[in-house]
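Q: what sequence does this backbone want?
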């Protein structure tokens, strides 16, 4: 094997690892409530924009 092939193989392996790690984190970790909730944020003081029609 030549040196260039080894470098390309390492870069490809690193890219595959990175993509698999992103997919795993997206599918199997919970960073928020994941539902249709406010997650502890109080929106009661926010007024809706009346000028939008």
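A:
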């Amino acid at each position: 094997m030549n040196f260039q092939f080894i470098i390309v193989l390492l870069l490809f392996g690193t890219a595959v690892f990175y993509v698999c790690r992103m997919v795993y984190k997206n599918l199997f970790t919970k960073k928020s409530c994941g539902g249709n909730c406010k997650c502890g944020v109080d929106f009661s003081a926010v007024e809706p924009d009346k000028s939008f029609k």
